[in-house]
Amino acid sequence: MHISSVVRSAAMALTVLALVSTVSACGGGDSTAGSAGAGNIDKAALIDKMKEKPESKDIPASTMDCMVGALMKYGDQATLQGIIDGKVNVDNDFKAFGAKEKQVQEEVNKCL
């Protein structure tokens, strides 16, 4: 019985290692932006900044995560860092995203 526990533990460890390697090779998890070149902007920091706004207090976490995901998908590092630093305001519009303004608006609306 003891040997089967060791084999099972080893198999689980190898599975976890394979999954972690796969995720790492694909570019990581949700804390980094995708194809827009947002570099190493921290998704959690962006969510925290958005939650600071009084109008955000009633937004469910899943909706906020979706909305920030849309911002990260289309935003470049400078724009996203500007939001975190409080230099870029996206309350009323998404003009800071330039030509991608319409796409950001559409994706954010899908989250709501």
From TrEMBL:
Q: Which domain of life is it from?
A: Bacteria
Q: Does the keyword Signal apply?
A: yes
Keywords in UniProt for this one?
Signal
Task: Tell me the leader sequence span.
Answer: 1-25
Spell out the protein name for this chain: DUF732 domain-containing protein
Source organism of this protein record:
Streptosporangium album
